[in-house]
Amino acid sequence: MIHGTSAPVESVDWQTLLATSITDVRTLLERLELDTTLLEPGLAACAEFPLRVPEPYLARMQPGELNDPLLRQVLPVGEELQEQPGFILDPLGEQHSNARPGIIHKYHGRLLLIVSGGCAINCRYCFRRHFPYADNNLSSQEWEQALDYIRADSSISEVIYSGGDPLAANDKRLHWLTRRIAEIPHVRRLRVHTRLPVVIPQRVTDSLLEALCDTRLPVTMVLHCNHANELDQALAGAASQLRGAGMLLLNQAVLLKGVNDRLEDQIALSERLGDNGILPYYLHVLDHVRGAGHFHIDDQQAKELVGRMLTRLPGFLVPKLVREVAGRASKVPLPIELLED
Ligand code: SF4
């Protein structure tokens, strides 16, 4: 049932699901039958980064299980407030790459458009948890200026919709933007980085497919799924619709302590992605953002984990292990340790 209504999740449109997300720690704990001693530290952590969990995501968690891998990604905890050396506000230096409002231009040939500052879920490990989205909320005139920026740089062959979550924008906005970008001759590809279909699969509608696919541009969607339990029946249906519309589907995950740091977690995730025609693309080591230190895994463990995956899965189901480093010309691959035990 949706929070505050009697409607079952499956029958509700995505805008209502977005608007009725749980944002209150007490409600989250009660719904999952968890100990209320978690309330006080949870509220303190929320003062820095609010709670947000949509109902379809909550429905995939196990009540009473504090170690549920989906819950751990969203539950605000006291550890977030402990200072950790090296964990800072803007670990990727994005505020220097924010070329103009709405644009992050880090790498040659491609740029990110902040299509929406909003997200459907607040992931506690998010490297943009302190990003100044309010400064990137564009007026119509600023959108035109962002398009001028792309038009003026013929090296830009790929535009990436990012956020926040770009699919938190409405279809009318996405359709308008996609058509305008497709009019720029040197743009060859569109990429959409989103977690929204994972947490609210109802976001995938005919109207969305038309908004993204109704141009000459080939579209790649990079989903953000961290655990096999996130890939339920509803998401499988959404993935099938996206593929049916001609999109290439990739996944990126973040390696998170207590969520997906065991070999069996990673294998189950890759297998489930493969079952649904989604290729594992990147496994990111954690960005050192303030408040996320409790998710940290050391590099050696990460390299060995992916090395073991290679001995158990076909190569195309093994993601590239990468780190993003401020100021580098691309993501930095980590050399894996091939262990054959
Ligand atoms: S959906 Fe993406 S941008 Fe939004 S909080 Fe989660 S990781 Fe961050």
TrEMBL record:
Q: Known PROSITE patterns for this protein?
A: RADICAL_SAM
> Where do the Radical SAM core domain residues begin and end?
105-328
What does the similarity note say? Belongs to the radical SAM superfamily. KamA family.
Which NCBIfam families does this chain map to?
A: EFP_modif_epmB, KamA family radical SAM protein
Tell me which residues bind [4Fe-4S] cluster: C119, C123, C126
Q: Does the keyword Repressor apply?
A: no
The UniProt keyword set, sorted, is: 4Fe-4S, Iron, Iron-sulfur, Isomerase, Metal-binding, Pyridoxal phosphate, S-adenosyl-L-methionine
Q: Show the SUPFAM superfamilies listed in the entry.
A: Radical SAM enzymes
The answer on whether this UniProt entry bears the keyword Signal reads no
Q: What is this protein called?
A: L-lysine 2,3-aminomutase
Residues bearing PTM N6-(pyridoxal phosphate)lysine: K331
Q: Which organism is it from?
A: Pseudomonas jilinensis
One Pfam family name is Radical_SAM
Query: A single GO molecular function, which one?
Result: 4 iron, 4 sulfur cluster binding
Known InterPro entries for this protein?
A: Aldolase_TIM, EpmB, Lys_aminomutase/Glu_NH3_mut, rSAM, rSAM_sf
Which cofactor(s) are needed, names only?
[4Fe-4S] cluster; pyridoxal 5'-phosphate
Q: Which reaction is the catalytic activity of this chain? A: L-lysine = D-beta-lysine
- In which domain of life is the source organism classified? Bacteria
